[in-house]
Amino acid sequence: MSTPEQESSKELPHKKNDAATKPATQNGTYAPKPILPIKRAKLMSTATSSASSPSQHSPLQTRAASPLILNPPIDSDGLSWPSRGARSRIDQTADQSSQRERRIADAVQVILEELGEDTTREGLVETPERYARAMLYFTKGYEENIRDVIKRAVFEEDHDEMVIVRDIEIYSLCEHHLVPFFGKAHIAYIPNKRVLGLSKLARLAEMYSRRFQVQERLTKQIAMALSEILKPRGVAVVIEATHMCMVSRGVQKTGSSTTTSCMLGCFRDQQKTREEFLTLLGRK
Ligand SMILES: [Zn+2]
């Protein structure tokens, strides 16, 4: 179990930068409230603690906070790192499904009104329902599981060369701000007598990205799932993404992107393998 300190130390680097380096007012019309002293103190102490363990907050922290050591369980349902309610979404009846959509739409209505909108004007009349359906789609990954995604696409194959699929488009939602982040995922593995249908790599990325995420965890989840399914000699996942919460708030300007990676097995242990992968990605 993690203590509150550990929890807070998991905050994304860009969140901390936000507080530590940026004044409260921005150039745009939107000026966020100043950070309360108590929160600032908390963020600063997080920053201090990260100084003593520098690996903790780098974008590549998936490597330092080793998933091999932490070894989070992967269940065949694909609900590892689960959300509360994911199970109820999977099991719901059609009736429960429409009730859920109604409740979300009602909540959206409240948000719009609190933001100062007139929800009876033409353009907004059906917006709560539309948004509810859109959000259910953007988070449809909660209703999918590894077993159904993979089906019978694992094959015995005497192939031990690197398999790599590049430029898989991903669209996800930042769980801190509920706004999109999107980009490309690159997935590689070196088989150990088992291979996976190539399209399934993209399906796995899709399943995990259609949930509320932080990019670091998304990267790790894809790698861990693949590792669990195939027991390969190694897995590497790199994700490059643009976060709307960063580029649209003036924290970091348009065009900035975040790269995360997770290397397991021989990608982790052997520099030669890792370099081959990065070369194939065009990064070296
Ligand atoms: Zn965010």
From TrEMBL:
List the residue ranges of the region (Disordered).
1-102
Instruction: Give any Pfam family that matches.
Output: GTP_cyclohydroI
Which EC numbers characterise this protein's activity in its record?
3.5.4.16
Keyword Ion transport on entry: no
What InterPro entries does this protein map onto? GTP-CH-I_C/QueF, GTP-CH-I_N, GTP_CycHdrlase_I, GTP_CycHdrlase_I_CS, GTP_CycHdrlase_I_dom
Q: In which pathway does it act?
A: Cofactor biosynthesis; 7,8-dihydroneopterin triphosphate biosynthesis; 7,8-dihydroneopterin triphosphate from GTP: step 1/1
Compositionally biased intervals (Basic and acidic residues)? 7-19, 88-102
> Domain named GTP cyclohydrolase I: which ranges?
105-280
Low complexity bias: where? 45-59
Q: Which keywords are on file for this protein?
A: Folate biosynthesis, Hydrolase
Q: What class of enzyme is it?
A: hydrolase
Entry superkingdom: Eukaryota
Family, per entry = Belongs to the GTP cyclohydrolase I family.
Q: Which NCBIfam families match?
A: folE, PRK09347.1-2, PRK09347.1-3
Q: What is this protein called?
A: GTP cyclohydrolase 1
Q: Which organism is it from?
A: Lodderomyces beijingensis
